[in-house]
Every structure is written in C-alpha cells, then in structure tokens.
Design brief:
This protein has helices spanning about 25-30, 45-50, 55-60, 80-90, 105-110, 135-145, 145-150, 155-175, 180-190, 200-205, 210-225, 250-260, 265-290, 335-340, 370-375, and strands at about 15-20, 35-40, 70-75, 95-100, 120-125, 195, 225-230, 245-250, 295-300, 305-310, 315-320, 345-350, 360, 365. By secondary structure, it is an alpha/beta fold. α8 (about 155-175) crosses α12 and α9 (about 180-190) crosses α10. About 40% of the residues are buried.
Length: about 400
C-alpha cells in the first residue's frame, strides 16, 4: 500500500507526538523530517546505550550540529532522556526535538513537565476517512482505521495480532498489571461497555476483581492511549444529568477484535456500538487537528434522554446523534430536540446508515459515511444552516 498523507502538520518548535502503537508516528516523522537525526528506542542496541548512560544523547546531538531536527521514537522507554532534552533546549541555537511516545504514564513519571513551555503536544490518531483514498464504511466498521491494519494484506489477521501485542508486549513487558489473566478477562468484559455508560461496579463484578483493580485497569488503557472516557455535558444544565462517563476504545477495529460474539448476540447491537465508536474517534481527531480548546462529551438525563456527542468550546457548539438505521424515524430525533430545547444555540446533526441527505425540522440528517468522508481539519463538522 502506498504511503498515505496525514492531515497532521508539524509545529514550528519542539513537540511531543503521542499515539498508540501502529498509528503511524514513525512513518509520519520520516516523511516530515527526512534529514533528522533519528534515535529509535525500540532498537535494542540504541536502547541499551542510552538507558545505561542518558548523556549519550547529548553526545549524539552535539556530534551532529548540522541536524536541525532530532527525532526520538518511543521516548517513554527512557524518560530520563527528558532531562538531557531539557538542558539542550536551554542552549542557544537548540535543534527541534520531535519526541514520539505511546505511553502517557511513563512520560508523566519521567518528568514531562520539565519541558512545559518548550515542547507542545500533538496526538496521532487512526486514519480519518478523508485521509484514505477509498473509504468503505462496512470494512472500517469491521477492521477499523489503525494505519498498520489498513495497510496490511490481511487486515483481520493483523488486527488480531495487533490487539494481542498490546496485551502481551505493552502490558506484560511494562509490568503495568500483576495478573495478566485478570486483565485479559477485563478487556473482554469492558468491551461490552464500548459506546455505553461505564459503571465500574458492574465491570468489577463481571470480571471477578475489585473495583479498585478495575479503576487501575482503566487507567492502564488510558495511559496506553488505547481507550478514553467521555464525560457528561453539564454546562448550564437545568435537567438532572447522569454522572457516569461513557467508554470507548480508540479504534472501532480494536473494539471488534476484543468484543466476544456468539449465537445469542444481536449483530445490530454490535454494529451500533462500532458505528458510534467510529464517529467518536473521528470527532476526537478533528478536535485535535482543528481546535484543541474544544471539549467532546455526551448528554444524558436521568430519565434516559440522550445525545451521543456534544462538541463545545469558544469557537463551536454542536451535537451529533448516531443511528445504525437506514431510515430516520420520528423518535430518532427526540434526544436532539430535547437538547435544543435546553441549548438553542447548538447546531444539531443526526447521522444514519441511509443514502439521502435530509433536513427534518431544521435538523440535518446525513448518511454517516458522507459525514465522515467530508470531515477535515479546519472545516465545520456540522454545517451552519442559513434560515430560509
């Protein structure tokens, strides 16, 4: 598969580039910094050299003063290098450092705050639909948009291996959990919460571990950047809302690989969770590439009225409801109508599996694949409708 250009553009100064393994951080860095001094901490020899003597980094940088860019891959493997990077950035005519990583926990423990103000933060997400030449919604709902998987000759097999690698290589090798069997069981159980309100006590009961253990496992998933929790939108709330967040894996293919299925499962339910997750990962990427001051949340009252996604900030305010149906029914708009009653300033949109673009009572109703294929950084995610 030919190399695919990404929407992410490098900032002018030094920066961290965080994202799960396989999302294309190294490939992107090579494309944008072909002449950089590259230090890959996944290479055993390089790792041994710098972990035993972090000052080796200073010697390499000073010995290559003609290189204006220094790329360090998987910086979290040797967080002590951040002290050296910090000192080098303090020097006159310092090079630009590009620091990629796939674990937020080790960077926090290693003192990433030392670089506050000297290195900005960027995130690498799975592909957006508009980044790939041909977007097939059905295929992406099955295997997701992780670049490593998209580029594979056998995406399904690669996806299974990719998920197994995270459990074995990342979690076990880093010693993040003591009981890998409990954690593997937790992954299966929590996969049923993908796209749903997360109740930790229920997950703990189904996993047969303590609530504290589940909270720790969730922290591990978020630290490895493979899952996230979506908070409830509570701005100026006049209705009582629920308190629990919703849970998502970072990629819908990862969800499908972890979610056990059997004869008692209804395919439409699994597809609906996958579809909602696919929209979630696109909105997260769009926010990071467009305006990081925007917040992504969801809205749900205690009586069960819900809107899947709310994007709110200084520059935008819109709500999106996702339906895994090829028709728009009157009841499908109930949540958006209720939300508009509370927040008339919001721009609503409903996404569904049909083929026609509709507008019903002032609410745009678009095919979800059309919405995803047109979504690009810097453009309105939800169109601004001029009243007739």
């Amino acid at each position: 598969m030919d190399s695919i250009g990404r929407f992410l553009q490098p900032p002018a100064g030094s920066f961290f580039l965080l994202g799960p393994r396989g999302t294309g951080k190294t490939t992107w860095a090579r494309q944008h910094f072909p002449d950089a001094l590259s230090i890959n901490l996944l290479q055993p020899e390089t790792f041994r050299e710098v972990v035993s003597r972090p000052e080796r980094l200073r010697e390499l940088v000073l010995g290559n003063r003609d290189r204006r860019d220094i790329v360090i891959d998987e910086i979290q493997r040797v967080p002590e290098l951040l002290h050296v990077v910090h000192d080098l950035l303090e020097q006159a005519h310092a090079p630009r450092f590009v620091l990629t990583g796939s674990s937020a926990r080790k960077l926090r423990r290693g003192g990433v705050n030392l670089l506050a103000g000297r290195a900005t933060m960027r995130r690498m997400h799975p592909f957006m639909a508009a980044e790939i030449p041909s977007f097939d919604l059905a295929e992406r709902l099955r295997t997701g948009l992780v670049p490593l998987v998209v580029a594979a000759a056998d995406p399904a097999d690669t996806l299974r291996a990719y998920v197994a690698a995270y459990v074995e290589q990342e979690v076990r090798a880093e010693g993040l959990v003591r009981q890998i069997g409990d954690f593997a069981r937790f992954l299966e159980v929590v996969s049923f919460s993908h796209g749903s309100v997360l109740t930790i006590s229920n997950v703990a009961r189904e996993t047969a571990v303590s609530r504290k253990a589940v909270e720790g496992y969730l922290d591990v998933l978020e630290d490895l950047l493979v899952a996230f929790r979506l908070p409830v939108f509570t701005k100026r709330a006049s209705r009582a809302t629920v308190a629990h967040p919703k849970f998502y894996f970072f990629d819908t293919g990862v969800f499908r690989a972890l979610r056990p299925t059997g004869p008692l499962d209804r395919p439409a339910e699994v597809d609906a969770a996958a579809l909602e997750g696919l929209v979630a990962q696109h909105l997260r990427a769009w926010i990071d590439l467009t305006d990081t001051s925007l917040d992504l949340s969801y809205w749900r009252t205690r009586t069960g009225t819900e809107v899947d996604f709310v994007v709110y900030g200084n520059t935008d305010f819109f709500a999106v409801e996702v339906k895994n149906s090829d028709r728009v029914r009157a009841d499908d708009l109930r949540g958006l109508r209720a939300f508009l009653g509370e927040y008339p300033e919001c721009r609503p949109m409903l996404l569904y599996r049909g083929t026609a673009k509709l507008e019903i009572d002032g609410i745009p109703c678009w095919p979800v694949d059309d919405f995803l294929a047109r979504l690009r950084p810097g453009m309105d995610a939800v169109p601004r409708i001029t009243p007739q």
